[in-house]
Amino acid sequence: MAIGNPGGDKAARKIKFFEYTTIDDGAGGELPNQRVLVLETYATIKPVRSDLRLQVHQLEYGTAYEVDIRARSGFFPKKTYELEDLNGRVMQIVGMPTDSKRRGRLTFIAQYKG
Known about the structure:
Elements: E1 13-24, E2 30-47, H1 52-61, E3 65-70, E4 82-85, E5 90-95, E6 101-102, E7 105-112
Antiparallel strand pairs: 1-2, 1-4, 2-3, 3-7, 4-5, 5-7, 6-7
């Protein structure tokens, strides 16, 4: 079952993509390791369909989820990005399937932290 809005999984939940980077502090210096919003969008999040390799991975590292978003020009998720849902739960991108860009969609694998 997909995690999305109560009305179904076509219109999904809002998520935010963040990355950690160095930013200008406005006074001629820099602030290292700052969490910066990269993109806010809607996504469908559902448990990954199992195969043996994935089952072993899930036993070691927890449940993996397929995260599906609309593709955007100039944006491609990086493994260094964190995702945050509206409940404040944070996910880490752990992999992208080879067919991750299809029909104007991007699909990748993520896991909740902690």
